[in-house]
Amino acid sequence: MAPQPNYSEKSDLDDLTRLIHLGLTIFGILAYLTGLWAGDYKRASHLGFSTHKWLGISLGFFVFFRIWLGFYGSREVQFRQWVPYTRERVLRVLEDIVNLLRLRLPDRPTHQGLAGLVQTFGLAVFSWMALTGTLMFFFLEPGRKAGGALHFIKELHEAGLWLIPIFLGIHVGAVTLHALSGNDLWRKAFFLEKKQN
C-alpha cells in the first residue's frame, strides 16, 4: 500500500473553497451549455455568443481564484499537497485504480490518490477553457469571422466540447458511487450539510 500524506488533512474543505467549487460548477455548466449557441458570433445579432462570453468570463474568475488558492490558500487545497506529481502520489493513483477494478471505492482524504488526478485534470481543462475564452473575450469581434491566430485559439477553445463532458462524467460518476456507498460528499460541496467540527 502506498504511504498516506505526511500531513493531517481535514476531512472538510473551508467555506471559501466550497464556494469556489460551487461557482465553478454553476458557471461551468452554464458556460458549457451556452457555448452550444455561441456560433452566432459571426452575425450582427449574437445573443448566444454574448451570453456565453459573460458566463465564461465569470467562470474564468472562479478558475483564477481556485488557482490562486492552489498556491496561497489553506494547506489542504494547495497544489503542492495533492497534485500527483511525486512517485508516492502516482502509486496512490494506481492503487485506487486497482481497487476500483476490484469494485472497492478508494478511501482517502480529499484530493488524494485518483481523486487528485481527476481534480488535476478538471482544473487543467477549466484553466484551458478560461485562458482561450478570455483571449476570445477581448479579441474576437462579433459580426466577423475569426481569422489567423484568433481562429486557432477558437479551435483550441472548442476542444472543451469534448474535454468538459469527459471530466464531468468521471467526476459526477465518482460522486454518485460515493453517494450510493453512503458517503454523501456532494451535500457538503453544495452547503447542504454542515461541516463537522
Can I get a quick summary?
The chain has one domain. About 65% of the residues lie in helices and about 0% in strands.
Q: What is the topological layout?
A:
Layout: H1 15-35, H2 47-72, H3 79-82, H4 87-101, H5 114-139, H6 148-158, H7 160-180, H8 185-189
Helix pairs in contact: 1-2, 2-5, 4-5, 5-6, 5-7
Return Rg in Å.
19 Å
Tally of separate domains: 1
Return the average pLDDT rounded to an integer.
Answer: 85
List low-pLDDT spans. Answer: 1-10
Backbone structural class: mainly alpha
Shape by Cα distribution = elongated
Largest beta-sheet details = none
- β-sheet strand percentage: under 5%
State the helical fraction: 55-70%
Number of helices: 8
The count of strands amounts to 0
> Can you write the helix and strand succession as a string?
HHHHHHHH
Tell me the span between the first and last alpha carbons.
Answer: 29 Å
